[in-house]
Design brief:
Chains A, B: Keywords: Cytoplasm, DNA-binding, NAD, Repressor, Transcription, Transcription regulation. Chains A, B: Homodimer. The structure is a homodimer. The first copy, chain A, is built from 9 helices and 10 strands. Chain A has about 220 residues and is α/β, with parallel strands linked by helices. Chain A has 2 domains: about 70 residues, Winged helix-like DNA-binding domain superfamily/Winged helix DNA-binding domain (Arc Repressor Mutant, subunit A, Orthogonal Bundle), CATH 1.10.10.10; about 110 residues, Rossmann fold, CATH 3.40.50. In chain A, a hairpin with a 2-residue loop joins β6 and β7. In chain A, α1 packs antiparallel against α4, α2 crosses α3 and α7 crosses α8. Chain A is globular and about 60 Å long. At the A-B interface, α1, α5, β9 and α9 of A face α1, α5, β9 and α9 of B. The structure holds a DNA duplex (24 and 24 nucleotides).
DNA sequence: TAGATTGTTAATCGATTAACAATC
DNA sequence: TAGATTGTTAATCGATTAACAATC
C-alpha cells in the first residue's frame, strides 16, 4: 500500500473525532473573524472547549497540518477540516413536517452558512401547503420523490410528529435518501445502508435533570 | 458496607447508561399504551433500538427489577426508571431567547409531559416582551433572578443567539441555576459545579454530511 | 422438571489522557 | 542554539458485547 496523497486522511476517522471536527471548525471561524492567523493547539482547544491533547490527537487523524514550535495556520487548517467533513460541498436538504420545530429549522441560519441548502419544505397537512415559511412555499408530502430526484437530495430532516416519523422515513428511503436527521421522538427502522442521527430535545433535558437530582440529594436511591 | 435499600442503585451510573434511560422510558410508555404488561429484554431492546445485552447491562446498574425466565413488569420498571432519572419530580424551567427556536421549545409538548414546567419565557429584546407564546407572556431578561428564586428554577434553557449566550449563562449562574441546556452555537465558560449540555442542530447535520461524503466517494481524501 | 430469560462475568473494543521525542 | 509546540506513544479508562451460570 503506497502513501496517500498530500496529507490526506488515512482510512477511517474515529466517530468521537468526527463529532468534534465541526466544533473545531466553528472555533477556527471565530479566530479567523477575530483576525487571528496562527494558533497553538492550546489556544484552539480553549476556543473549542476541549483539552489540547485531545485536539492534537483528533487532528492527527486528518494529517499533519501544524508546524512544530509554531502552531497551526488558521486559514489552512480551517480549509482542511472543511474539506474533510464535506463543508466544501453543497448539500441539498428537504425538511418534512413544518410545525413549530420545522418552522424554526427552516429559518435556522446555521444550516445555510454550512453548505446546507433547504430545497423544499414538505407537510402532509393540506392546510399548511401553500404557506410560505422562510421564503419557501410548503409543498405536499407526496412531492417528496420528485424533489429528491430533481435536486439530488441526499439528506432529509424529519420534524414531523412521532406518529408519522416512520412513514416519512420509509418515503425518504424509497426516494433514495440515505442520510436522515430525525427530530421526532421515535425509533426508526431503516435499511442498514441508511444513516440516521437523532436529536431529542427532551432527552437532553432529562439527562440534566438526572444530574440535578443527584446534586440536590433528591434522588430516591439513598441507603437506609 | 451494608446492602442498599430495596433495590436502590449502587453509587454511580455510567454516563452512557444515563443517556439511554430516557429512551427506555419512552419505549416502556409505548408498550404500556399498547396494553403490554410484561416484556423481555429482547422485546424492550427492540422497541428502544439497542441490543438486549446492552439493555440488560444498563438496567443492572439500577438494580434487579426483572424476573428470570419471565422478563420485566412494564409498569414497575417504568416507575423505577422514572424515579431514577427524576421524572417523578416537577422541574421548573426558564427559556431565554424567544426567537424561532425558543418559540418551538416553548410549544414543545415533550417537555411538559416529562415533568418540565416552563415557568417563564425571557427575551432581552423589548419588542418581544409582552408577546404571548404558548400561553405565556414574554418577560424582560432582567426578571431572571427574581423568577429563579421565586419558582426554585434549577434548569435554564438558552435559545438566544451565540453572541448573547455567555451573558445569558453568566446571569443564570448568578441567579443560582446549576444546569443549563444550551442551543446556542457557542462554548460556554461556567463554574465547574454547573452542568452544561449542548444541542447543536447544524453539527448533527455536518456529521451526517461527513458520512454521506464517504458513501458517495466525494471526499478529497482518496489515494492518487 | 424443562424451558425461558435475567443478571453478571470476562473479553474486546474504542476513547481519553499524559508524557515526551521529534522538529520547527 | 534555545525555546516552543507538534504528532505520537503508551497507559488508562470507560463502553460494548457475547456467553453463560443463576434462577424463575
Amino acid at each position: 500500500m503506497s502513501k496517500l496523497s498530500g496529507g490526506a486522511a488515512a482510512s477511517r476517522i474515529p466517530e468521537a473525532t468526527v463529532a468534534r471536527l465541526p466544533v473545531y471548525l466553528r472555533a477556527l471561524n471565530s479566530l479567523a473573524d477575530a483576525g487571528t492567523t496562527t494558533c497553538s493547539s492550546e489556544h484552539l482547544a480553549g476556543a473549542a472547549g476541549v483539552n489540547s491533547a485531545k485536539l492534537r490527537k483528533d487532528l492527527s487523524h486528518l494529517g499533519s497540518y501544524g508546524t512544530r514550535g509554531v502552531g497551526y495556520d488558521v486559514e489552512y487548517l480551517r480549509y482542511q477540516i472543511a474539506r474533510e467533513i464535506g463543508q466544501t460541498h453543497d448539500w441539498p436538504v428537504v425538511i418534512v413536517g413544518i410545525g413549530n420545530l420545522g418552522h424554526a429549522l427552516a429559518n435556522y441560519s446555521g444550516f445555510s452558512s454550512r453548505g446546507f441548502r433547504t430545497v423544499a419544505l414538505l407537510d402532509a397537512d393540506p392546510a399548511r401547503t401553500g404557506q410560505v415559511v422562510a421564503g419557501t412555499e410548503i409543498r405536499p408530502f407526496g412531492d417528496l420523490a420528485g424533489i429528491v430526484s430533481e435536486h439530488g437530495v441526499a439528506i432529509g430532516v424529519i420534524a414531523a410528529p412521532a406518529s408519522a416519523a416512520q412513514d416519512v422515513a420509509d418515503a425518504m428511503v424509497a426516494a433514495g435518501i440515505r442520510s436522515i436527521l430525525n427530530f421526532a421522538p421515535a425509533v426508526l427502522a431503516v435499511p442498514e445502508e441508511v444513516d440516521v442521527r437523532k436529536v431529542d430535545l427532551s432527552i437532553e433535558l432529562q439527562i440534566l435533570a438526572y444530574h440535578e437530582q443527584r446534586k440536590s440529594g433528591l434522588d430516591g436511591a439513598e441507603a437506609i
